[in-house]
Amino acid sequence: MMQHAIRLLAILSECSEPVKTGDPPEGIAVIRAELRLQALDFWLRNPDYLAGELLTKVEDHDLPAHYLSVVEHLLNNPEPDLHWYPMPRWHHGAYEAIDDAFSVLSAYGLALVRRMGGVQKTARSQFFLTHAGRVAAADLAKERVLSWYTEQAKLVALVAGSDNGSTLKKRQYQQAEYARTKLGVNIAPIHSAVRGRLEAFRTTVSGSLAPVAGG
What we know:
- The protein is of the alpha+beta class.
- It has helices spanning 2-15, 34-45, 47-59, 67-76, 79-83, 99-107, 131-142, 147-160, 165-173, 176-179, 191-209, and strands spanning 17-18, 27-31, 89-90, 93-94, 111-116, 124-130.
- It has a 4-stranded antiparallel β-sheet with strand order 1-2-6-5.
């Protein structure tokens, strides 16, 4: 549960948006839907899926080619195995209850949750980072081991952009392994598939840069 709380703190710090008028005064940044938070958590917990998203952005020229080394690092570094925390798929995609982990952050005053709606309308949760949470996240980034979460969350923010939770889930469902996972079953890794895409892309790029014979 503590690792889950640390992941949520890193995500709140790196992937949130500024608060607006009407938000709780204790909040300094916010993720406005659990669907988006769950999608971000999935990428943080699954470096191979994160690598696949980064590779797609390089292929689409949304990121420069030097990010290929980041993709390779995510796939080859032993840390992915140490930090791989599979998530089961449910009706709305990868999901794991966050109440217990978030209650740890709330108990220390690092974050707070507010639910909109009521009995007659489906409630929507919003997750706020507090000033104390920002300080704690900065301390996290200085730790030799725990800073892994901060760096990974920065990459998650890069691939997620400002897409809402529904859009992020649709992007994740484009991965066949993700989409065909049965309900309640952990979503399988895709290391081999992403590594194959990376090698194929590099071959294509190097081929296009090769000098033309007789030219």
